[in-house]
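User: Fold this; tokens only.

Assistant: Input:
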Amino acid sequence: MKKSIFVYFSYSGDNDQLATILKRKLNCDTLKLEPIKNYTDNSIKILFQGGHESVSKKLPALKPYVFDPNDYEIIIIATPVWAWTFSPVLRSFLNDNQIINKKIILLCSHRGNPGKTIKHLTEKLPNNQIIYTHEIHAPIKDNENIKKLTEDIIFSIKHNE
């Protein structure tokens, strides 16, 4: 299988779960994105804070990380849905990295409505080939749905080699 990386932000732990599962099943690298200033733990306040930052397209500063898109042929990106789009943390990552001519898999985890998250991510990643997308209703557990998701991702990767 081609060299791949799972790049993600996890606020509630759902995408952390997914990273653990995919790392084990796909043997891919992982990169967890973390803002320098942590978000509130208050579930009501985060709706307003995260929603405001998403809608206003804020770019929070991220903790240092190592990432060179040239090291990977396939980049799997996962984000929680905030205000019906992708998280500000992921927006910062995408603004900081020029990702072109890659095969991309887009995943979003949500607890209600995924909105236009996949569409917005696709628009943010022009000049790439989106080979698979999936909206995951959280909470994420290693169950039959995740087993099928993993199989679909593996199929998409092999089909696009």
